[in-house]
Specification:
Elements lengths: L29 E4 L3 E2 L11 H14 L5 E6 L3 E6 L1 H10 L3 E7 L3 H13 L6 H16 L6 H20 L12 H15 L6 H13 L4 H8 L7 H8 L5 H7 L5 H13 L4 H10 L14 H14 L6 H20 L1
Parallel strand pairs: 2-4, 3-5
Antiparallel strand pairs: 1-5, 3-4
Length: about 350
């Protein structure tokens, strides 16, 4: 269940490996010249909503900067921004000469982790930057490249499903307590636990800790619903980054294969604020050859083989209604092959 993002994002449950003994002014802020603060070469956040930034600028004009910027010392004298880029940008826009800061001694890894967590727990973060930020955080925690994270999550999903299926099959079909082969599996599993051989996957443990700490969603939900987001066309991703359209609407519009047609439709859907049902209805009623996914003829054999393999393992053979459908399809296939 998704919770409301924290109003104090730096109080995340995720452990960030900075040395608290190295805090210069942990309990109070100090003021330094704005031109002494430099942006880091890599920032986790790529898009800032212009309207939200304008509102923040007006607020700072009236009330000043209420939450200090977080900076770190580099090369012993330079101050690099860690968290608070929106406040930094607003201060530059207004022309402030000095800003309040909290200074911490952080290495590159700790500073980037902290910046990631601070951004991930912001209310206004768009789903694309959020997804990419979570991938970056997982890569840091797991000490892997970002490209390794999606296949790792899919492998963890597969392992969990396999374990669940295995646990469901350990009891005999008749539910008896007799020492059958299935019951032997239970005994073996219990012995493994007693021997301490039932070791928790360390990658799974880290992944679960990251998502529990963020409290935004489960890792399974992230793998199922967020990873596919990054495969959307760039024009759709750009609209999502800007917050111009909701994720569900964007996914529907992404089904339009022709780029020019998709961009035109996307702009119209945003300008007219169409609902998801209106978007789906319009796409359905105005399908063109370019809007329909293309399937090469030489893929048919592969698709048929995959479908039949899946059918063999399917439980539909015990469903009388579905068996009638299968029979009808078989008759059609037989008639088709007789024509050849």
């Amino acid at each position: 269940m998704r919770r409301t993002k924290a109003s104090q994002p730096l109080k995340s449950k995720i452990e960030v490996p900075w040395d608290t003994t190295g805090i210069k002014n942990a309990d109070s802020s100090q003021t330094i010249p704005l031109d002494q603060i430099h942006l880091p070469p890599t920032q986790p956040r790529r898009y800032f909503d212009s309207e939200a930034l304008k509102q923040l600028t007006e607020s700072i004009k009236q009330h000043g900067i209420l939450q200090p910027l977080l900076v770190r010392l580099i090369d012993g004298e330079k101050h690099e921004l860690v968290a608070g880029e929106r406040r930094y940008r607003a201060a530059k826009e207004i022309g402030l000469k000095e800003v309040p800061v909290v200074i911490r001694e952080l290495d590159d890894n700790a500073a980037f982790q902290l910046a990631l967590i601070e951004n991930l727990l912001r209310e206004d973060l768009n789903p694309v930057d959020e997804t990419e930020g979570i991938l970056q955080l997982l890569a840091l925690k797991l000490n892997r490249s970002i490209n390794e994270i999606p296949p790792l999550l899919r492998r963890l999903q597969h392992d969990r499903k396999a374990a669940s299926k295995s646990s469901n099959n350990v009891i005999g079909k008749d539910g008896s307590d007799n020492l059958s082969a299935d019951n032997n599996v239970i005994i073996k599993d219990q012995k493994n636990k007693q021997d301490g051989s039932n070791v928790v996957n360390p990658d799974m443990k880290i992944v679960e800790e990251v998502f529990e700490g963020l409290g935004l969603m489960t890792w399974e939900s992230f793998a199922n619903n967020r990873l596919p987001l990054l495969n959307l066309p760039e024009d759709i991703l750009e609209a999502l980054r800007k917050g111009s359209i909701e994720y569900t609407k964007a996914r529907a519009i992404a089904t339009i294969q022709d780029k020019d047609e998709r961009i035109t439709f996307l702009e119209e859907a945003i300008n007219k604020n169409w609902s998801l049902s209106e978007i789906k209805q319009y796409i359905s009623e105005n399908k063109t050859p370019n809007s329909t996914p293309k399937t090469e003829s030489h893929d048919y054999k592969e698709r048929f083989t995959a479908a039949t393999n899946k059918l063999r393992k399917s439980p539909i053979w015990s469903d009388p209604k579905k068996l009638k459908k299968i029979e009808k399809l078989l008759m059609q296939l037989e008639a088709l092959t007789n024509e050849a």
